[in-house]
Write a structure and sequence with these properties.
Blueprint lengths: L1 H6 L1 H4 L5 H14 L5 H6 L20 H9 L49 E5 L4 E4 L8 E5 L5 E8 L2 E5 L5 E5 L3 E2 L3 E4 L3 E3 L2 E7 L8 E5 L4 E6 L6 E6 L2 E6 L3 E2 L11
Antiparallel strand pairs: 1-4, 1-7, 2-3, 4-5, 5-6, 8-12, 8-15, 9-10, 10-11, 12-13, 13-14
Length: about 260
C-alpha cells in the first residue's frame, strides 16, 4: 500500500505533508527491497510483508540463503547413510529328536509285576483277622475272614498292593499286601493213623524209624526251619517242639523247594 501511495504522491502532495511522504517512501525502500524478476513472475510474496488472507511468519535469517542455494542447483547438505544389507530371514531349525529311552526289561511271567519276586511263593498271614476279597480292592466283597495268624498262603499274582493267594484248602482270593509277612510257616494237612490216634508224627531224625517227638493233628501251624535239597524231610518247630516232618504231610512249601537254616 505504501508503494501505491508513493506512486500517487503527485496526486496526494496537496493532502500529505512532504516530509511524512518522503519518510514513508524512504522506509519502504529500506525495509522492502524489490523482488528479483524470477520471484515476481513466480508470484512469491515480498519478505516481511504479510499477504492478504494469511498470517505473517517471520523467516529465519538463513532460510533465504538455503532457498537461494537450492534454487541454483546446489544439493542440500544432508548426511547420506549407506544402505545396510537386509538381514537374511530367520529359518526355524527343528531340534534334534532325543534318542528313544530304552525300554524297561520285560518282567518274566514267573515274577511279580510290583515286587519282581518269584511267583508263586509262600507267605504267612500277619494279623489275627485278614479279609479275603473277590477282587483287588476294597470295593470288592469279602469272601472269607481268616483268624489264624501265621497261616501259610501261596501268592499266585500281584496287582498294585493286592495279592491273589490260595490257602491249604484251595480257596483263592485277594488280600492286601500289608496283611502278609515273609515268614515261612506250614500247616499240617496229612492225617495218618498212629498208635496214639490220627495225626502226623514229628520225628527226631529224618527217617521212618526216627524217634517220636510229637504227634501233630491236621490244622496245626508251625515254622519251617530247613528243607535240604533232595530230601523228603523238613526240620520244623511247633511251640516248644522241634523235629522232622515229611514234606508230603504239610502245606507251605513248593515242590522241590530248598530252605536253608537261618
Amino acid at each position: 500500500m505504501l508503494m501505491q501511495m508513493c506512486r500517487r504522491s503527485s496526486r496526494v502532495a496537496a493532502r500529505l505533508p512532504r516530509v511524512a511522504l518522503l519518510s514513508a517512501c524512504a522506509l519502504l525502500a529500506v525495509t522492502a527491497p524489490p523482488l528479483p524478476a524470477a520471484a515476481r513472475q513466480a508470484g512469491v510474496p515480498q519478505t516481511g510483508i504479510p499477504q492478504a488472507g494469511g498470517e505473517h511468519h517471520p523467516s529465519h535469517p538463513h532460510a533465504r540463503h538455503r532457498h537461494h542455494r537450492a534454487s541454483h542447483g546446489h544439493p542440500a547438505h544432508h548426511p547420506v547413510h549407506p544402505a545396510h544389507p537386509a538381514a537374511p530371514p530367520l529359518v526355524a531349525v527343528p531340534a534334534p529328536a532325543p534318542p528313544p529311552a530304552p525300554a524297561p526289561p520285560a518282567i518274566p511271567a514267573n515274577r511279580g509285576t510290583n515286587t519282581n519276586l518269584p511267583l508263586p511263593r509262600f507267605a504267612s498271614l500277619r494279623a489275627d483277622e485278614v479279609n479275603m476279597r473277590s477282587g483287588p480292592g476294597t470295593r470288592y466283597p469279602i469272601l472269607w475272614l481268616y483268624k489264624r495268624r501265621e497261616l501259610p498262603v501261596e501268592i499266585m499274582r500281584e496287582f498294585d498292593v493286592w495279592r491273589l493267594v490260595e490257602d491249604a484248602d484251595g480257596v483263592r482270593g485277594w488280600v492286601h499286601q500289608a496283611t502278609l509277612v515273609g515268614n515261612r510257616s506250614f500247616v499240617v494237612t496229612a492225617s495218618g493213623a498212629t498208635d496214639r490216634g490220627p495225626g502226623t508224627i514229628m520225628r527226631d531224625d529224618p527217617q521212618e524209624d526216627g524217634g517220636v517227638v510229637a504227634i501233630l493233628r491236621p490244622g496245626v501251624i508251625g515254622r519251617l526251619r530247613a528243607c535240604p535239597a533232595g530230601s523228603a524231610w523238613c526240620r520244623v518247630s511247633v511251640h516248644n517242639y522241634s523235629g522232622w516232618l515229611q514234606r508230603s504231610a504239610l502245606f507251605g512249601l513248593l515242590p522241590n523247594e530248598t530252605i536253608t537254616p537261618p
